[in-house]
Amino acid sequence: MAAVMTIAAPNSLAAQDGVPGPDEDPYIWLEEARSDRALDWVRSENDRTLAHMEADPRFEQLKNEALAIYDSEDRIPFVSIRPDGLYNFWQDKANPKGLLRRTTLESYQSNDIAWETVLDVDALAAAEGKEWVYKGSTCLPPEQRMCMIALSDGGKDATIMREFDTATKQFIDGGFVLDSESQGSVQWLDKDTLLVSRDFGEGTLTDSEYPFTTRIWKRGTDVTDAPEIFRGESSDVWSGAGLLRDNKGVVHARTAFRGVSFHESINYVWHEGEWLELDMPKKANLAGIIDGQLLYSTDVDWEVGGQTFPADALVSVDLEEWKRDPNGAKKTLVWAPAERQTKQGISSTANSAFITILDNVVGKVLKFDFEGGKWVSTEVALPDNATVGVAAASDESDQIMFSVTDFLSPTTLYYTDGSGDPAVLKTSPAYFDAMGMEVEQHEATSKDGTKIPYFIVKPKGMTLDGSTATLLTGYGGFQVPRLPSYLGTTGKLWVEKGGAYVLANMRGGGEFGPMWHQSAIRENKQRTWDDFIAVAEDLVKRGFTTPDHLGIQGGSQGGLLVGTAFTQRPDLFDAAIVQIPLFDMLRYHLIGRGASWIGEYGDPRIPEQRAWIEGYSPYQKIVEGVDYPSPFLWASTADDRTHPAHARKGAAKLKELGQDYWYFEDMTGGHSGGVDNEQRAKLQALQMVYLMQRLMDDNNGG
C-alpha cells in the first residue's frame, strides 16, 4: 500500500449498512490479530506449510542463496548526506536488527569504508527485551544533531519516539519521549519545541485510525498538556500541521493539511493570525523551496490567475510574495510532462532542484535553476534506458548521488559535487549470471482496447513453445509505478534456474502519470484487473508460456491484484502468491485502517459503490465448484497496515471448500514481511519452492 498506512484492530464485528457481519461471515474471528483462537489457527497452518515446503530438497539451497545476497558485505551501503557525515542503516548476519552508522565522504569514496556506529539496534533491543525495529529519524536542521528516533516493537508501523544526540550517540536523559505506540509525525520547530501529531486519546484519531490533531510541545512539559494548534475532522483520512523550511533550516511558515481522502487534501497556511485555506487543487501539494521560489506539484489541471497548468506539472511562486499574499502570488510553470512522461520525485541541493521523470517507463533526471527570473533546465548525464533516481542530496552543498539500475545490471551509484557530470562512485556486485538472459518490452491489449506495456526477462533464444515457467507480477494502484530494477534474489532463485519474469504496468499505477492512475480507481478499478489478465493472455498468445506454467505474485494492493486474477480467471494460472493482501473488500473499511483507502476503491456501505467492489472482491468470489490454482497466501501477524485477517480469511474459505492452498504467517515483522535477513530469506525460499513445484515440476506441486 502506498505511503503511510497502518492497520489496527477491527472497528466493529457487526454488520454495518449491509456489509457482511458474523451471521454471514463465519471467519470474522480471524480479524482479531492476536486472539488465542486466531493464533492457534495460524500455528497450525504454519506447521502444515513448513512441513511441506522445508521438506523440499531445494528449500535450504534457495534460503542460503537468498541469505547470502541479503547479508552480502559488498552490496552498496546507501547513505543520506548530513552535516556531520554520511549516514547508513545496515543489516547483516552479525547485526540482524541493524546499525545506524556514519562515515566521511573521503572514506565512503574508498574501497575500505571506516564506519562509526551511532546506534546499535541489536544491543538496544537486547538491553530492553524488545524486538526493536528501526523506523528512521527526524532531526533538527540545519545541524541535524538532535533527532527523534522512531522504534517499532516487532515491525508494525506504529512506533514510539525518543530524543537522541548523534554527537554523543546517546538517548537524551530527560529528553523528549513519546512512549505510547502510535502512527503520526513530529517536526522540530527549534531545539526546545516540537510539533506533534499522534494519538492523544479519545477524540484525536480519524475514522481511519490516524491522528488529526497537532500540538506544540515545549521541552520540560508533559505532552498531554501541550496546546493544540490544528485540528482536522474525524472524517478525514489524516490531518496535521507542519513547517515550511528552506535548505538552511529557516522556517518560513506554518502549514497544515486535511487529508479528506487518500488522494485529496485541503491545505492551509498560518497567515495573519489564522489558518488560511490555500487556493490550490485538492490533488496538489507544496513541494519545497529552491532559489527563493516555492514549488507546487499538481496531479490535475490547475486553472489560476488566467493560466492553466496541466496535470503533473510543477509550478512556482516567489516565496516572499507568497508569504505576503499566499493566494495571490503569481504562478510560473517550472515543468510540464510531454506525452508518455510523468514526474516521479523532486529533490534539492543547496542551489538546484532535481526532478526525476519517467519517459515511456525510462528514467531521466532534470536539473532546474531559477536564473534571471526564469527556470533553466538541463538533463543530468546518466545512462540511458535505465531506472534512475536521486539516492541522496545535501542541503548544505551541491553534493548529490544518483542510483541507476535495470533488470540485469547491478545497481550503480553516481556522485557529483555539482562541479561536473556525475561519475560512478560504487557498483553492487552481480548476484546472478545474466549472460544467458535478455529483456524485451511488449504490449497487451486490455478489454477496452487500451495498450498495456510489460517487460519480460527470459533466457536468450527461449523456444516459444509455452513450456517456460513464468512469473508475472505487478501492482496497479495508488499511483505507484513498478519499474525495472536489478532482480537480485529473483534473478538468482528464479531466472537463473530457467524461469521467466514478467513485470506488468497496469492502469492504477503511476507509470504514465496521474491520469494512468485516476482512470482505474473506484468505479473503474476493474480496469486494473482487466489489464493484468490481458498481459497474462498475451504471454500465452505469444508462446512465452501456457497456463500450466504461468504463476502470478503480488503484495498489498498487488495481493488484491493477484486475488482478483485467480478468482476471475482460475483457468489462466497454475500458481498464485498472495502476499500481505487486501482480500475481503466488503469489510476492508472495518478491518483496522482500511477506511483510509476508500478514495482508491470506494465505500462498501454505499449501495452503488458496494456494487463496484462486490464485482471483484476475491474473498466473496471464492465459491464451490471452481478449480483454483492452489494459491499460496502469506501475511504478517504484526502487519498494522493491511492486517493479516485478509489472507487468513481467504485461506480459511479455501479450506472450507476443500480447495488446495497453502498459508504462512510470519509472526514477527510488519507490512514488508521479515524484520531481519534470516526471515526475509526464509520467506523467499518458501515462495520459490512453491513456484517450482507448481510451474516447473511434473507432479505439479504434490
UniProtKB/TrEMBL annotation:
Pfam families: Peptidase_S9 (PF00326), Peptidase_S9_N (PF02897). Residues 492-692 form the Peptidase S9 prolyl oligopeptidase catalytic domain. It comes from the Bacteria. One of its GO terms (biological process) is proteolysis. Residues 24-418 form the Peptidase S9A N-terminal domain. One of its GO terms (cellular component) is cytosol. Keywords: Hydrolase, Protease, Serine protease. GO terms for molecular function: oligopeptidase activity; serine-type endopeptidase activity. PANTHER family: PROLYL ENDOPEPTIDASE. This is Prolyl oligopeptidase family serine peptidase.
